[in-house]
Amino acid sequence: AQKVTQAQTEISVVEKEDVTLDCVYETRDTTYYLFWYKQPPSGELVFLIRRNSFDEQNEISGRYSWNFQKSTSSFNFTITASQVVDSAVYFCALAKVLTGGGNKLTFGTGTQLKVEL
Amino acid sequence: KAGVTQTPRYLIKTRGQQVTLSCSPISGHRSVSWYQQTPGQGLQFLFEYFSETQRNKGNFPGRFSGRQFSNSRSEMNVSTLELGDSALYLCASSYGVTDTQYFGPGTRLTVL
Asked: CB of A96 within 8 A of CB of A107?
């Protein structure tokens, strides 16, 4: 069975602070995909990044960066110089390619990030 | 390209009624998945459709069903509504088997 753990339920920071959101996953598959989504109060899940299990290269996109480590089954997300607009719930997800085709996302419980002035 | 659209955005129903939710995927996307989000259970996979066929189904009772049309638009139906069905229902579309799923704004269903 697949599992995604986001141990941080809620994080509060002051604007311009750096913040790291943790994600630990469990899977027996050798091929899998990891994602981060952002959910603002409006409810829509906004795609942020995707990582394939065979690509451990870290990625930076503006103020966002991701650290993927297969050895520790972690896929952490760092926001540098946080802004109020970053306030949202962030979900880490694991995709399993199913035998019938298609894929299914298993989500963590989410981390509520609050960035205050 | 336009994103995933879902209608209606909000619904209020009473116990025992049935409801149909609609999802239009991103143009060119052939796979549509549905998820239920509740405070207690989080985000859970309902089912996935591809080329008008349900390929995968989550662990939900038979009251939850869906279908996909030839233009890839999808509907999900919940019959005999229960209070516990109150949730945000999210639809996601993707192009192929291992492609990223892009989500719509969701339909917030309240069962009274």
From this structure: no
Helix or strand or coil: residue B85? Answer: helix
The 10s digit of each residue's pLDDT in B51-87 is: 999 988 999 999 999 999 999 999 999 999 999 999 9
Q: What amino acid is encoded at B107 in this protein?
A: T
Q: Cα separation of B26 and A101, whole Å?
A: 20
As a three-state string, the secondary structure of chain A is CCEEECCCCEEEEECCCCEEECCEEECCCCCCEEEEEEECCCCCCEEEEEEECCCCCCEEECCEEEEEEHHHCEEEEEECCCCHHHCEEEEEEEEEECCCCCEEEEECCCEEEEEEC
- A→B contacts (Cβ < 8 Å), by residue, are 33, 35, 37, 42-47, 50, 91, 93, 95, 97-98, 100-110
Q: What is the mean pLDDT of residues A24-51?
A: 94
Three-state SS at B32: strand
**Of B85, B71, B57, the residue nearest B23 (C-alpha):** B71
Residues 6+ positions from B100 with CB-CB distance below 8 Å: A35, A47, A50, B94
Residue contacts between A and B (CB atoms, under 8 Å): 64
